[in-house]
Amino acid sequence: MEYTIRPVGAGELELVLQHRIEMFRCMGYDSEAELARIRSLSEPFFAEALRNGTYLAWVAVAENGEAAAGTGVLLLPYQPGPNDTRAQRAFIVNVYTDPKHRRQGLAKKLMEIAVEWCREAGFGIVSLHASKEGRPLYESLGFQATNEMRLSLRKEKP
């Protein structure tokens, strides 16, 4: 099957949210109530980010018009440092490929486009959070684990 990759437009919030929720579903989040909550919390955030240009995204479209895969770059305020002097940090988010379109190289191609956009925009670093399934792809593109640590402030659900 042939695919076309194109930028996601500011009016395509529904596509972004659909891919975001399906990404979480594939990562094992199976509570429909929790997914609905994530969607409702994500909607105003991504609507504003698409509107103001702090979220840029790309979609791979199958020849039948189906949105087969997508990814995005989220630009967030961040303190400058020795490795990246910008007061912004680029995060790759919402990497998703519909299961029936997997193993076509779509995620890799979309990742290459997102990384190249970050490079051309002058970022010294681009970050992402990797699922277990996505880690091999990201490592093949040169992503490395960092010294970042995390403390969960929420109690685990019973």
How is this structure best described in words?
- The protein has 158 residues and is α+β, with helices and mostly antiparallel strands.
- It has one domain (3-140): Gcn5-related N-acetyltransferase (GNAT) (Aminopeptidase, 3-Layer(aba) Sandwich), CATH 3.40.630.
- 35% of the residues lie in helices and 23% in strands.
- It is built from 4 helices and 5 strands, in the order E-H-H-E-E-E-H-E-H.
- Strands 1-2-3-4-5 form a 5-stranded mixed beta sheet, with helices on both faces.
- Strand 2 and strand 3 (67-77) form a beta hairpin.
- Helix 1 (13-26) crosses helix 2.
- The radius of gyration is 16 Å and the shape is globular.
- The termini are far apart.
- The model has no long low-confidence stretch (mean pLDDT 94).
List keywords for this structure.
158 residues, alpha+beta, Aminopeptidase, 5-stranded mixed beta sheet, globular
- Intertermini distance: 45 Å
Helix-strand string: EHHEEEHEH
In CATH, what is the class? Answer: Alpha Beta
Mean pLDDT, all residues: 94
Structural class: alpha+beta
